[in-house]
Amino acid sequence: MVHLSNEFNCEDALKDGSYWMPFTANRHVRKQAGSRIISSAKGAYYYTPDGKKLFDTLSGLWCTPLGHAVPRIVEALKNQAEELDYCSSFQMAHPVAVRLAKRLAYMAPENLNHVFFANSGTEAVDTALKLALGYHRLRGEGGRFRMIGRERAYHGVGFGGISVGGIVSNRKMFAAGMLNGVDHLRHTYDHSKMAFSKGQPTWGADYAEDLERLVALHDASTIAAVIVEPVQGSTGVVVPPVGYLERLREICTKHGILLIFDEVITGFGRMGENFASRRFNVKPDMITFAKAVTNGIVPMGGVLISKDIYETFMTGPEEAIEFAHGYTYSGHPIAAAVSHAVLDIMEEDSLLTHVRGLEPVLEKAVHSLSDLPGVRDVRNFGLTAGIDLVPEADSPGKRGSALFELGMQNGLLLRCTGDTFSLAPPFIATEEQVLDMVETLRRLIITVT
Ligand code: PLP
């Protein structure tokens, strides 16, 4: 057995590549390992080993809206670890998860009364897709096997999620493992028609008619479900045009197709409501969630499910397992206890109200960047915004990388994908912190463009 020396040095170890970092340009990062280590976090800031303080512009990966090291959440975690650290959820129940299921169902749109727990967004999406297939099969419509996703969508990295996902770089290497028969709606972004939209673009509801075209092409009898993020997050905050989600709902209902909203990013307050479906007043048949449900402190994900789907499964012999699916850590007691603490804080500190108050502050601030010659587009909705930089000729992505590096040197931990970056500040941020973030960005954008 190899023993680590007492002299362990993270920077050196990172350079040797033993740690293969996810969604990372590993060789590039290894070269600059010293500047890529975060050693602690508190509130809205991360800290590097050499004491640099970085504002958390994306709330982790959209998952830490209450900030870091929140004492009450840490305490809930410790207490639960002492009381019941683990118990299988297969054939056994523990109170903390049962209560959480009730609580989440109460928060969700009223048609979604049942919760199936997973541990991540990826698992939540797989679970929802399997539920959709099972639902139709149990109703004697096993021919409905097709899933409809959307271009630019991110639904995690399982084979289910990449099949319905629409980010080419996440799919092309793995085409051999994709689900059969998946098709995609077009994404709803058109720079020529909706650049610099504040909130929902008023143009583009007709994109929903793509679904009618896919129904005409494949026939409704082969289509199980449509899955969309109400607001596409990972692809740089693409906000649905006014009327688009409503129309998708109508078409799904008309053809007996299930509608799944992937609310892994939009759930738990980011849209100023518990769920985006509440904000848009569109009721899907399932909602997938993860991330902020535990404020990122431990993993948890899950699916909120309609009564109709639940009851369709609750048939057959009573001794038989109705849905042959689940994870060792489904409904993990520590994750559930943490989630209760998160939801308590959101309620008691009226964080949804705070988010709704910050939304116009962020909107005004980010749109004040629109006049910079290096900015190609600015979009916003809820407490999030996406900004596209004008790419450098022949070197797309270079400006995004440069902005990220400059951010690290100037107190911002940014999330850039190509030349696009997204902002999703913590809900606990003050107006001043939001404005400071945008003012720093203004300087940095001017520098890199
Ligand atoms: N779905 C959406 C909409 C997401 O944004 C993400 C992650 O960003 C996922 C699914 C996957 O979640 P996870 O990384 O927890 O598997």
Automatic annotation (TrEMBL):
**Which cofactors, if any, are listed as required?**
pyridoxal 5'-phosphate
Q: Name one GO molecular function term.
A: transaminase activity
Q: Which UniProt keywords apply?
A: Aminotransferase, Pyridoxal phosphate, Transferase
The record ties this protein, via PROSITE patterns, to:
AA_TRANSFER_CLASS_3
**CDD domains in the cross-refs:** OAT_like
Q: Which Pfam families has this protein been placed in? A: Aminotran_3 (PF00202)
**Entry's family note:** Belongs to the class-III pyridoxal-phosphate-dependent aminotransferase family.
The protein's name in its UniProt record: Aspartate aminotransferase family protein
